[in-house]
Amino acid sequence: MSQSKTKTPKTKSSPQTGMLEERPGRTSAMRVMSMIALVAAIVFGGLVVTGEGAASGPGVYIVFGFLLAAFAPKALQKFAENSPIRSRK
């Protein structure tokens, strides 16, 4: 019995990017800001829920403001990049 050894072709693996990087080695300010706003919303939301007047008053609006700041900019950026309207040269 002869067993043939097949070589698997070596492919160039692309460098891994981190969670807060847009390209390897380059940190994305948009992603860092979104992460900070998300953490602030979670912490402040916990304070609002456990404090007096839970789930009422201006604290809820502040939490929603942090959540909006965390998710809206990246979504708007995606829509702007994929916009069908292109500038004419």
List the helices and strands and how they pair.
Elements: E1 21-23, E2 26-27, H1 29-50, H2 58-81
Antiparallel strand pairs: 1-2
Helix pairs in contact: 1-2
Molecular structure report:
This protein has 89 residues and is mainly alpha-helical. Helices cover 52% and strands 6% of the residues. It has two helices and two strands, in the order E-E-H-H. It has a two-stranded antiparallel sheet with strand order 1-2. Helix 1 packs antiparallel against helix 2 (58-81). The longest helix is centred in the C-terminal third of the chain and has 24 residues, at 58-81. It starts with 20 loop residues before the first strand and ends in an 8-residue tail after the last helix. The model has no long low-confidence stretch (mean pLDDT 76).
- Helix proportion: 40-55%
Number of helices: 2
Task: Assess the beta-strand content as a share of residues.
Answer: 5-15%
As residue ranges, the low-confidence spans are none
Task: Give the SSE string.
Answer: EEHH
> What overall form do the CA principal axes indicate?
elongated
Quickly give the structural class.
mainly alpha
Largest sheet: 2 strands, antiparallel
Cα Rg: 23 Å
Give the spatial strand order of the biggest sheet.
1-2
Distance N terminus to C terminus?
A: 68 Å
Number of strands: 2
Organism: Salinibacter ruber
Keywords: Membrane, Transmembrane, Transmembrane helix
Protein name: Integral membrane protein
Biased composition (Low complexity): 1-17
